[in-house]
């Protein structure tokens, strides 16, 4: 993927306690723009980067570094794709993340057993370094649920797709059971994609611990800073070589 004219920034979306509506923490999300400053969907950028694993890992590291540098105080969730933290990139990423208190790493829900094993291996590494972990996008279209991976998590994040199916008894019962499992095992449960008061009401009924979504857009934080991916990667790689 051509990143010569790609700029990187981020957005911090609040995690909210559904009953009190108090702020609990933030999730950091990567944001990209092209040369004309038009937004580019992050999933499109990372999907294309998968074809070049080394560049993918570099951009992943750069994104996390930017998110940590500009983060608000308090609890922070960041996303890690297991493909972006393999081989020689494990140590640099750990060195970047582990020193930060109140940091939780979100690992994406998996689409095959190989990815599930990659995520399990990463969770073990993070836990050894005192970093808590969340399983992201549970129930998203095209994903599968790995029971072993779920048991190792500190947080369970349920995809917005559940909100389109809560009027179906089977789906509601399944989500309620997963939330109940989380409560019995000390895992905080987060429901994503809350956009309406009705959806917030469902979250309260389900007794999830935290919610997230555009209903709380007034509390989103968008740093004014951005970096050129091409230039920032060159500086970053130079710095990492000096530290090696």
From TrEMBL:
Natural source organism: Shewanella denitrificans (strain OS217 / ATCC BAA-1090 / DSM 15013)
**SUPFAM superfamilies reported in the protein's UniProt record:** EAL domain-like (SSF141868)
**The protein's name in its UniProt record:** Diguanylate phosphodiesterase
Q: Which residues belong to any copy of the EAL domain?
A: 1-233
- SMART domains in the cross-refs: EAL
GO MF, any single term: cyclic-guanylate-specific phosphodiesterase activity
* Domain of life, per lineage: Bacteria
